[in-house]
Amino acid sequence: MSHYYSKNQDDIESNPSSFNFNFRGLNLKFNTDSGVFSKNYIDYGSFVMLNNFVPNDINLPILDMGSGYGPMGITISRLYNKEVYMCEINERAYNLSLKNIEINHANCKAFNSDLYEKVDGLLFSSIVTNPPIRAGKETVFEIYDEAYKHLEVGGELWVVIQKKQGAPSSKEHLDMLFGNSEIVKRDKGYYILKSIKRN
Predict the structure, then answer these.
(1) Which fold has domain 43-196?
(2) Chunked mean pLDDT (size 10), the chain, 199 residues
(3) How far apart are CA 5 and CA 44, in angstroms?
């Protein structure tokens, strides 16, 4: 059976819908469908991330890893006038993100990518992720490990994760990997974690 973190959703009947998202003066519209993460509205974790993420001054694109139909990446691009790359394994979510980039006039590039496959060799100023917890800890930690390799020196990894779904172990892993991690925000059980690549 397919999951939102699976590549193909052919066994899940399509049921397209859309919603409007008003955020800090932006009026955005998102097309969604069955078989994608948080179909009906932007999930609370992504909302907390959007409320707390601040881009740095490094002149490179931002990467949204596991971008779904595009709510975080597109909103960040429009809000800060930044170029955002978006990687998503779910083909249905990826195709929706292409439509959502277009209708929201966002400076984004979307890739139907198994983790960092389609952006191999590229460096980013920041990487944001709402990791697919149900895909398993191994996959989540691989996102962190590969993020370190894909960040410019001074670049930042931003993670949103619930305490009950592994925030403490994620923080411990990031501390080992980056040599630092900060709890930027706690909100209704969600943690925003930030680690900086020092060298």
Answers:
(1) Rossmann fold (3.40.50)
(2) 51 90 97 90 96 98 97 98 97 97 98 97 98 90 98 98 95 98 97 97
(3) 18
